[in-house]
Write a structure and sequence with these properties.
Helices cover 75% and strands 0% of the residues. It contains seven helices and no strands. 37% of the residues are buried.
Length: 189
Amino acid sequence: MDITQLILDDHHEQRRLFAILEQIDRSDTEALSAVWGRLAAFLEVHAAAEEAIFYPELLNVGIAARRRAGVEGETLDAIHDHNEIRDAVSEVARRTVGSDEWYAAVAGANLANGDHMAEEEREGLTDFRRLAGLQQRHNLAVAFVAFEARNVTGVQPVDKDPAANVSQAEAGTWSASDGSLRIGDLRSS
């Protein structure tokens, strides 16, 4: 098992679920709601797992390889992207399922997520494969899959402070519950 492959597998599943939404008749709001509910929970669990497990280790291996600036930038950007995805998912929840506005909000979430995945696949995952050994990638994969399994029904979406998370990771104090902006709901209507 390799954490980079698990993340890529999750990305494939996210793309698949977005594609499935496009193929369901808009009048079948029960199916749309069910698939969207699964996708929304999956997006947040995936982001939380990356923030708790992958990005702190990307920082560690990058710093050890004297690539601090590159991995810090990637991590800051990824957490910022996760916040944008959370906001887009929150926007979908405020729309009537199957409406034009709902589909537009889903498209916005898909765009934000697609941009993030492409960048992560080009940068963070590539860097981690170059900098981390197989045993480390395996150990992180076990932690990652266990995190997702424990939270299969979802986690509470909370925007994170990218700079605080990076500072905590560099100090060795970053945990899944740290870095919250503690602002409650993501966006108000």
